Amino acid sequence: MTLQLAPLMAGGGFALPRPRPRGPPYFGRNQVAAALHQVGVLLELADANTFRIRSYQNASRTLGTLTDDLWELVETGRLTDVKGIGKGLAAGIEQAMRDGEWPEDWVELHDSTPPGLLDMLDIPGLGPKRIRILHEKLGVTSVADLRNVCEEGLVASLKGFGAKSQSRILDGIDLLARFRSRRRLDIGLMYGEAFQKRVAAIPGVLRATLAGSARRRRETIGDLDLVVAVHDDDHDAVTQAILELPGIADVKGAGASKVSLILDTEIFDEAFALPHLDATVLDAIGGAEYEAMEAGGTIDAQVRLVPPEVEPFTLAYFTGSKEHNIAMRQRAIDRGLRLNEFGLIPEALAGDLKGMEAAVHSLGATSEEDIYRHLDLAWVPPELREDMGEVTAAETAALPTLLEPSMVRGSLHNHTTLSDGEASLEVMADAAQRMGWSWLGLADHSPTLVVANGASADDLLAQGATVRRCNAEWAEQGVDFRLFHGVESDILANGRLDHPDNVLAELDYVVASVHALGRWRGRDEQTNTEELLKAIDHPATTVLGHPTGRILQGRDGYEVDLMAVLDHMAEHNADGRLKAMELNASPYRLDLDWRHCKRAKELGVPVIINPDAHSVRGLTDIAYGVMAARRGWLESDDVLNTLSSEEMSARLRGDNEG
Ligand code: DGT
Ligand code: CA
Ligand code: ZN
Known about the structure:
By secondary structure, this protein is an alpha/beta fold. It has a 6-stranded parallel beta sheet with strand order 10-11-12-13-14-15. It has a 5-stranded mixed beta sheet with strand order 2-4-7-6-5, with helices on both faces. It starts with about 30 loop residues before the first helix and ends with a helix. The chain has 5 domains: about 110 residues, DNA polymerase, domain 1; about 70 residues, DNA polymerase, domain 1 (Orthogonal Bundle); about 120 residues, Beta Polymerase, domain 2 (2-Layer Sandwich), CATH 3.30.460; about 80 residues, 2-Layer Sandwich (Beta Polymerase, domain 3), CATH 3.30.210; about 250 residues, TIM Barrel (Alpha-Beta Barrel). It is built from 30 helices and 15 strands. The N terminus is likely disordered. Bound molecules: 2'-deoxyguanosine-5'-triphosphate (DGT), calcium ion and zinc ion (ZN).
């Protein structure tokens, strides 16, 4: 199935790009290529002459990879030298770039096409030709219509479609809805950091900082917020430079202090690529269709440009969360102050003044710390700004000293080629050492999980022999590194574990995980919770892996009372039996949710942040786990990852004897 990779696919909608506020040129090369592509698609929807469709498609493709400066070609009258651009197209392009207006027939084509058909273009696997057929034969005019006729089975009986493509269209509609709404943290941060770097490098920019949910490290991001400090004199030039950055797919608006943009993958220096994913995860989020969608994806970004003396207030405001802001504003009001994105202003001085005019009376701040200090508070790390008790903690010097990525010395749940990992034990161990870790736990899949190439007991025990040999070598060479040998044992019916007890007893630890999600998701919370408690009670169980099975933007977890599970684990730990809760660090999971991290901490249940790595690169997912842990208020002592190899070894041994 081919995917429609429209330049302005997700979030961008299917509309002709808007002109830049100042020109000429009013449009850049990418925007012209996008417009040509759109016209090609619209002509196809309208069942136009094939040659005409081709000419737009080819011109779009040529411009997409053109290395010459397009505007220079226009100005020197050499546009028709470009292969595939005839006189007619050249005239249209020139007019658009000079005057900021697309040719009338292009606009007319857009206006005459039902908007619902354009929406359908974003459904992965559905091209204009098939949309036209669906429209003509079944009268479909919207995505909702399309869902209905698919559910009624009408698409399956259409010539050239069939049951398979009908169910694929339904999957595509679901995928699109999820993809459009919010983006996972890893993707959002990739765009956000690339954009931040490009803006920070613009002459005249004093500081550019990512704010919003990206700065708070929420597990999904709605849109990016960038706060830019710039002197008034440089304001216009900086705005213009931002609009000309690579990767700006469209400009939704550019006002005095706010620029709204759509970013696409050209923002990245290198070709956009997703890391290797474990097959179950990839399947849950849409498989190859999802990968292609991500490669052609976009994200919205709001940029705020303010003078440096206002910037700390703007940064604090747009970092949010809204709930944290409300709590802060109330605290300011209690002190006769007005807090907003422009300043912290004594009400008595502000009077009827508004916005920046009132802000000239603001208390001074050179950083966020100053704002918090004015309100008798310690600075609150962005990850905690959710109105979950952080304001009170900041008042009473009770804020946690949050876990830092550099404190991590190892993790317990990682895969090798023994099951479905990409790298051998040796390569994974080497990568962990290069990350500065002192230990690494191997937990390959157990036999029941055939799809993940679960290893037999014999193979598992042979891996144990290799682990012991490696550990002996490192000890001899005085290398502070060791492997721990575990397994990711599938939780079977009735809370039993995969592998016989005598095999499990040979291991340093066991990560018990649910993988048979079909069974678990079809059941009630109480039954699931009871089975999970049984699995935890097994003497071999050390860690509960990805506790809810959720895949962000993919599928909900199974129903389970995690508070009860945490209570139960707390009892074990109080009795000296190590039962740790995994915080699965994969940005696709972040399971344990940060809200439950806070509860684990309160109960004294140790958390282990695990990348669930299936490759060397997968180990670096630990960073997302640390972000989630910070949102959950976790400190060094709350997680097992910060233990030395000696300490970790002792904890695991204690577990075996207990
Ligand atoms: P997102 O984009 O949905 O992932 O989440 P945020 O937190 O980035 O929210 P966004 O982009 O709507 O706005 C950025 C920040 O601006 C938000 O965290 C707090 C602040 N903000 C926006 N609207 C309001 C509001 O109506 N009241 C207050 N107090 N703050 C607001
Ligand atoms: Ca946002
Ligand atoms: Zn795993």
